[in-house]
Amino acid sequence: MVYVCREGTTCECNSSWLPRFKLPGPVSSEEDFDSSSSASLNMWTEVVEHYSRRHISFHQDRLPAISSLASFYEEAAGRYLAGLWESHLPECLLWWTDRGHRPEPSNSSMSYPPSWSWASTEGAVITRSSGETWLPTASVLDVSVHPSTSDPKGLVSGGYITIQGHLLPLQSSWHRDDLENDYTFRQYNINCHTTWQAGDGLEWTDGHAWHCSLDNIGSLRPLPKAGEFDTPVFLLIIGTSNHGGLHKSYRTFEGLILKPVENLNELQMKATKRFGSELACVRFGLGMLRLRAHSVDLPKDCTKTVTIF
Q: How far is CA 268 from each of CA 80, 112, 144, 162, 275, rounded to the nearest angstrom?
């Protein structure tokens, strides 16, 4: 909600006053919105972060309530996919939740966003800020959502994305990282290591070389100190970036934590067969891996095609 008077403008998303009739960013203007630029991605993700902090009484209203704002960006950003833009894939898949929760849809529900969409969760969403050093390592082969109504930017009843990239198995055990509790974002991180071993001359960074942020952490509190996943778990690497200076540098790999799904319906079976996917899965977290090297070659035999629902 925005309040305007003779003296200025304010809104529920910002306690400070702005000049009269100046709407608070990032919804103030569509000028300079270029779908190919990192600035445009940051602009939309800022919208998502502000919006997801609002209290929505009914979870199924998350997409319909933002549909008009999505229309504002449509001409510049292109195809809209349940809260994400196709022109920003695959980077826009790298979001995580602020102690979020993924509700289970009822059989009669018309709202069932795919797990790779932030709209599938409740709670605040934190998005990745685009940077010059970030490079995609995964390729999107196919993506689709299934609108539940005549509005393509409203309710959706599922969808899928097929990606080719490096898929690393994770160990079944994990432990909670108390030092990584982030009181700004109020989230829990867990450490879960890959079964892939770094090659000669490579080493993990000190401390938290591996960590995962779970999408459904809200339903797990209080989180146990340690535990084991009850299903095989994988990290699908989406992109990489370099950090550090001359003496201390490391390379970060960012990706989606996935787990396999069974008992696919007919539409899901068709989606997996279209590009010969080797794994059908759902997202349940965001993962990050850090190595002390600027140039790292991941094993070639770990390149897989997966379909995420």
A: 20, 14, 11, 11, 12
Structural domains counted in the chain: 1
DSSP state of 46: H
Between residues 24 and 256, the one the model is more confident about: 256
Question: Which residues, in sequence order, are bridge partners of residue 285?
Answer: 214, 257
- Which residues are within 8 A (CB) of 65 and not within 5 positions of it... i.e. 6 or more apart? 51, 56
Residue 189 lies in a domain: yes
- Core vs surface per residue 160-176: b (16+ CB within 10 A) or e: bbbbbbbbbebeeebeb
Please name which of 138, 131, 125, 45 lies closest in space to residue 92, comparing C-alpha atoms.
45
Segments forming the whole domain that contains residue 205: 32-309
Q: pLDDT digit string (tens) for 250-273?
A: 788 899 999 999 899 999 999 999
The answer to pTM > 0.85 is no
Summarised one tens digit per residue, pLDDT across range 79-115 is: 999 999 999 999 999 999 876 778 776 655 677 899 9
Do the domain assignments include residue 252?
yes
Are the C-beta atoms of residues 159 and 117 closer than 8 Å to each other? yes
Position 103 scores a pLDDT of: 78
H helical segments located in the chain: 38-52, 62-77, 266-274
Other Cβ atoms less than 10 A from the Cβ of 14: the count is: 13
